[in-house]
Specification:
377 residues; alpha/beta; seven-stranded parallel β-sheet; 16 helices; 13 strands
C-alpha cells in the first residue's frame, strides 16, 4: 500500500504525535510506501533507520507561536505548502489512504480525502466531553474561541472519515458518544522492545522520573509537593517540556526539591534515563492512553499512577495507584515504593512480561495493516 500521514506536530510534542509517527514508521517496515508530512522536526526522528527506503519524512517550515501574528504566518505558509508541495506529491504518489489524528491533522486529511477521492483514516484519542469530565473548570476555561471551533471541525471530520481507529476501549467509548458514530476498531500503541533490551546502564541513581508534557492537567507539581514531605527524598528527573516548565522550576526552588529538567531526549536517551531511575511517577488527570508507564515497566522499574479508569484498562494491577490529586496519598505511595525497593521485594518480571505480551509496535502495525487492507477490498 501507499500511505500518507499528516503529523501536525507542535513544538511541544505529545504522546499522540509520537504514536502516529511510530504507526507510520512500522507500517513502512512492513514494506508499505509511507510518506510523512510533518510540521516540525522532532528528536525521535533521529531513531529511524537510514536504510528504510519505504519511509520518507517531509518537513515544512513552521514558526513557534511566541509572538503576535505567528499563527497567521503559519496559516499562510501552510496554505502554499499544501497547494504547491503536498498536492503535487499526492498526485505523484496516488496513495491508498491519507491518515491523521485529532484536530488540525484530522481536518486536513478529510479535506484532502474529499478533494482527491482518497480513503481517509483518522485516529481518535480524546474528546471534549471526556476531558470536561476529567478536568472540570480547567477544561472549560480553555474550551472556547478558536480552540473550541477547531474541536467542532474535528468532530465533523471524524464523522466524514472512512475509518476511525481508537487507541483504547475508553477512548472508543467516549468518542462514539461524542460524535454519535461507531469507531471501527481499537489498535493499542506499542513499544520497541529491542531498544529497551539494548540500552545498558552502569548503576542506578537515587532519582525518580516523570516523562511527558508539562501541562497543568499532568499534575507534575503534585510530585514536588509530595517529595517535599519526605525526608532525604530522591531527586526528580523531568523528561519533557511544556507551558508549566517555568512554574515547575520556580516551585522546585521554593520547596527545596532537587529537580533535573531534561527535554528533547531521543528514545535511546529517554530509556537510559528511565533505567537509571528508581521508579516513575505519572500523576496525570487525563490521558487518551498514557505511554510512559509501559516504558517504566519494560525498563524493570515500578510506576505510580493516578487511579484513572484509562490506566486501569491499560495497566491492570501492574502499576501502583494513588488517589488522583491527593498529595498525602502520593507521599505514602512514594515512601512505600522506596521501602519495597530497599527490601528487594518488587517483582520486575511479571510487569515486564505483561507489557511485552500485550504491547509491541510490530504487532500494532500488523493489526492496523489488516484494517487498511480489508477496507481496500
Amino acid at each position: 500500500m501507499k500511505l500518507v500521514f499528516f503529523l501536525e506536530n507542535p513544538y511541544l510534542i505529545g504522546g499522540g504525535d509520537y504514536a502516529i509517527f511510530k504507526f507510520a514508521y512500522h507500517l513502512s517496515q512492513r514494506g508499505h510506501k509511507v510518506t510523512l508530512f510533518a510540521k516540525t522536526r522532532n528528536n525521535f526522528f533521529e531513531d529511524i533507520s537510514n536504510n528504510n527506503d519505504n519511509f520518507c519524512i517531509k518537513i515544512r517550515l513552521s514558526i513557534e507561536n511566541k509572538f503576535k501574528g505567528s499563527g497567521l504566518i503559519n496559516k499562510i505558509v501552510d496554505y502554499f505548502y499544501i497547494k504547491f508541495i503536498v498536492l503535487k506529491e499526492l498526485k505523484r504518489i496516488e496513495p491508498d489512504f491519507v491518515i491523521g489524528y485529532l484536530r488540525d491533522s484530522a481536518i486536513k486529511v478529510v479535506k484532502i480525502s474529499e478533494k482527491f477521492n482518497i480513503k481517509s483514516l483518522n485516529f481518535v484519542f480524546e474528546s471534549p466531553p471526556w476531558m470536561e469530565k476529567d478536568l472540570g473548570h480547567l477544561w472549560l476555561e480553555e474550551y472556547k474561541g478558536k480552540f473550541k471551533e477547531s474541536w467542532q471541525k474535528t468532530k465533523e471530520a471524524y464523522k466524514k472519515s472512512d475509518i476511525l481507529i481508537s487507541i483504547s476501549e475508553k477512548s472508543k467509548m467516549e468518542c462514539e458518544s461524542w460524535i454519535n458514530k461507531k469507531v471501527d476498531d481499537i489498535v493499542y500503541p506499542g513499544i520497541d522492545t529491542n531498544l529497551f533490551e539494548d540500552v545498558k546502564i552502569q548503576k542506578k541513581k537515587n532519582q525518580l522520573i516523570y516523562v511527558g508534557r508539562l501541562n497543568i492537567y499532568k499534575n507534575v507539581d503534585k510530585i514536588l509537593f509530595a517529595l517535599k514531605k519526605i525526608k532525604n527524598s530522591p531527586s526528580l528527573v523531568i523528561v519533557g517540556d511544556g507551558e508549566e516548565k517555568k512554574y515547575l522550576i520556580k516551585l522546585s526552588q521554593k520547596l527545596g526539591v532537587k529537580v533535573n529538567f531534561k527535554s528533547n531526549l531521543n528514545d535511546f536517551q529517554k530509556v537510559q534515563e528511565i533505567k537509571t531511575s528508581l521508579f516513575m511517577i505519572f500523576p496525570s488527570s487525563h490521558e487518551g492512553f498514557g505511554m510512559p508507564p509501559m516504558e517504566a515497566l519494560l525498563c524493570g522499574i515500578p510506576c505510580i499512577c493516578s487511579d484513572k479508569e484509562i490506566f486501569k484498562e491499560i495497566y491492570k494491577n501492574k502499576v501502583i495507584y494513588f488517589k488522583e490529586n491527593d498529595i498525602d496519598d502520593l507521599t505514602i505511595k512514594i515512601k512505600e515504593t522506596i521501602k519495597l525497593l530497599k527490601q528487594n521485594k518488587y517483582d520486575t518480571k511479571s510487569p515486564k512480561e505483561y507489557i511485552k505480551k500485550r504491547f509491541e509496535w510490530k504487532k500494532s502495525a500488523i493489526i492496523l495493516e489488516k484494517i487498511l487492507i480489508d477496507k481496500i477490498k
